[in-house]
Amino acid sequence: MLGSRSRRRPAAVLAAGAVLLAVAWLAGPASQPALYDGLATAEPYRYCQPPPGDAQQKPPSTIDHNLPVVNGQSPAIADGTEEQPPQAELLAPANAFAVPPGAVTIRVAILCAPSPRLLPLDGRLDGNVYQFVVSANGTPLALRPGQQVTVVLRGPAGTPNPVLERFADGQWMRLDTQPLGTSPDSYAANVTALGTIALVVSNAVVPVVVPDHTLVYAAVAVAAVALLAAATLLTLRGRSRRR
After folding, report:
1. Rounded distance, CA 111 to CA 87, Å?
2. For the whole prediction, is pTM greater than 0.85?
3. Where are the beta strands (DSSP E) in the chain?
4. How do residues 46-73 score in pLDDT, each as one tens digit?
């Protein structure tokens, strides 16, 4: 279950909610993306760079804070932006990241990112591009072997079947994406590395197959010629017999 953070709520409610969300997510199967049990009505999408004519009243929220390292291990993470539902979320179990010796805190950040110059070749970007960062002492942390974390993005309303893609090493890579039925226009993927992630709408067009009747027409023509030849032969034979 995906958590949402709301800075407007009392601190006690926020803390209790975060604990419950983390416990619920960690208790579930590791291979399944989290689910968001939020409000039924989604607020309008907030763009990092609003399109022309979009008079949005608020910029999208971001996440950027430090969490304490516990016994040399990274803590559980259940962070989401403040929109309802959140537009970007990161969920990770405890000890998911390789923490360097001596680190006492890790930084968790979900920030608006500029679109890479190289756009996806298989579609168009749908909504914001986000940068997901977990670091210690200014150095991004890698996931420990065998570990995965869950990334969730919400896109603009009504987009059909977008997928999450990660930009790394100069190319966009598709992620195994699952829609979240309880959160409108939200999609999740388990990843083994963080970085620049966005929703992409495929530009693939299903080809329309037009039946090819060439062979049928040829067969009909051959049959017609054969019938005409047979009729002509019978006529000639009939004439020769009468003679």
Report:
1. 11
2. no
3. 63-68, 77-80, 88-92, 105-112, 123-136, 139-140, 149-154, 163-168, 171-174, 178-179, 186-191, 196-202
4. 999 988 877 777 899 999 999 999 999 9
